[in-house]
Amino acid sequence: MRVLSSAVAVVSLGLGLATSAVASEESQLVDSINTYRGQTQKCAGQASIELPPLASDPRLVLPANSNVGDLQQAMARAAYPMVNVQAITLRGPATAQAAMKAVQESFCQVVLDPQFVDIGVSRTGPEWRIVLARPLLSGRLGDWQAEGQNVLQMINSARQQPRQCGTQAFAATSPLAWNATLATAAEGHARSMANHNFFDHKDRDGRTPGDRAELAGYSGQQVGENIAAGADNARKVVDGWLTSPGHCANLMNPQLRELGAAYAVDPKSDAGIYWTAMFGAP
Length: 282
What we know:
Layout: E1 2-4, H1 8-37, E2 42-43, E3 46-47, E4 55-56, H2 71-77, E5 82-91, H3 96-106, H4 108-111, E6 118-124, E7 127-135, H5 144-159, E8 163-165, E9 168-170, E10 177-178, H6 180-196, H7 209-216, E11 222-229, H8 234-242, H9 245-252, E12 258-265, E13 273-281
Parallel strand pairs: 1-11, 4-6, 10-12
Antiparallel strand pairs: 2-3, 5-7, 6-7, 8-9, 11-13, 12-13
Helix pairs in contact: 1-3, 5-8, 6-7
């Protein structure tokens, strides 16, 4: 089984150009962070796994030169119903590229934390503030099978159109069929991640997606797996996968014909909610 695992008039004009440049630099930093998350990285002596991109949220854009103090109060004032939030303050970088280098050198564990799903970046001169957060779960989810079917429908809708996944171009392809055995394996891994508070394709016993599919009784020739954490609905999960080259490639792979998907929740875990989609080729 094969496993697949970005004068007054003159002064006014100058200010306008400066504002545009600042906004562009902020956007560039968000893009750089998401590109960084989308690839395997070496951080704090460990290798990360490919993560979906963070979504820009204007409620997380806090003034870079202000004293934020209590982040939870700041989030409450911004009407962002967060569970976890963390802020990074950088002083000195003149460009987004320099800011990204500082992030990689000193804050890789923060930006590579899978529990965070939203981001806001602000800049005042050489001072930057990066806020990462995950929102409170909406509580409107159906059971894991119903939400797994929602994931299936959204992926099949995406497969109806040609798509560029990073450097790979995919033609429109046939829909995936629901596979109950893959769904059982997906639910088991989502539950394991939630209950044991980890985020990885390899489980606590060292088993890979192929191992889990085989143990569940799946006898296909090929298996792929996408995972996500912190996203509180299927739409956010699938949209995140579609903008991440590796996850997108699994979704669009014409050789993969079956799917089982699930989520699991544990309020004691860092991310709160974990998702797994297992793809198969019969």
